[in-house]
Amino acid sequence: MSDIRNKIDAFVKLGDFLNQFIEIDPVKKENLEHNDLFFDGFKHQLKLANENNSWFTRENLSFALSQWSEALTNENLSQWLSNYVIENVTPKKVAIVMAGNIPLVGFHDFLSVLLSGHSVIAKLSSNDKHLLPFLAKYLEYVNPEFKGKIIFTEEKLEGFDAVIATGSDNTARYFDYYFKSKPNIIRKNRNSVAVLTGNETEEQLEALGEDIFRYYGLGCRNVSKIFVPKGYNFDSFFKAIYSYRNVIDYQKYANNYDYNKAVYLMSLFNILENGFLMLKEDESYVSPIATLFYEEYKSLDSIREKLLQDSDKIQCIVGSGILENEVDFGKTQKPQLHDYADGVDTMDFLLRI
């Protein structure tokens, strides 16, 4: 147990380190281990992350770091791991193929592999290659046991015993073939949805804006589609999300808005829009940036059945009193440690390989 205790302590210290960067202008704290060595370096990595991927604005980087800082507490980590028996684990080498759509999106897999007693061979996305190697180096300093157990590679993955790979539906087909002989978790495209009844409060609808606009909608936990009752009036929705109007000030988002609006108008699609978000009636779950798809339903029973049938396409369902596994408004980008991607228990998988 001392081994897992030491690993938990290392991640708690990492959480304390990250807490310095939850504001856009970081404030260096005293009495943090190795802070003199790592503080300025991580500030530079954040700058590089933004320069390499301009979707990674300082605001969204700070948000991602704040979520991990809050998650990496002794209480949270201990409570999460109390559901598992982590002893007598035969160490394996676990390859992780990481996505790069939002900052540190592969960190939960990285955390799970190391806490389960295995080694990491990580293949980073070119869109998010600066943050995790630096944080891994910090972990190695606060707990030397991690040295030699964390490898980052840009080469072909070799010498691994199991794999966790995240990508698009197209890359998933490649992953299925390439990794078929190894224990694996293969993640494909998923999107999140919200089910509205028309009885939502203004506060709930405003919170839904966080689910839609955080990370400019690039995450699988972002709401890309809403289901509404037949004849739904969108006035309350548009009024409630008006506080997010500054999203259009970001040039890349504005470019997507203008482009998609032109495509819709030239195609004679009927759209609703408010100057920073377009609503388009569409059966698909995958909406472009600056667009939210919507679909009408006749009854709550019918929408429950549809969501059950399409569960392999859906990451989160936002609602109030609709389904047992629903997520509260405004909470999709604030998952807990036990909220596993695609509903697949990563830690259980790692303890069985």
UniProtKB/TrEMBL annotation:
InterPro entries: Ald_DH/histidinol_DH, CoA_reduct_LuxC. One of its GO terms (molecular function) is acyl-CoA dehydrogenase activity. Keywords: NADP. Signal peptide: none annotated. Pfam families: LuxC. One of its GO terms (biological process) is bioluminescence. SUPFAM superfamilies: ALDH-like. This is Acyl-CoA reductase (LuxC).
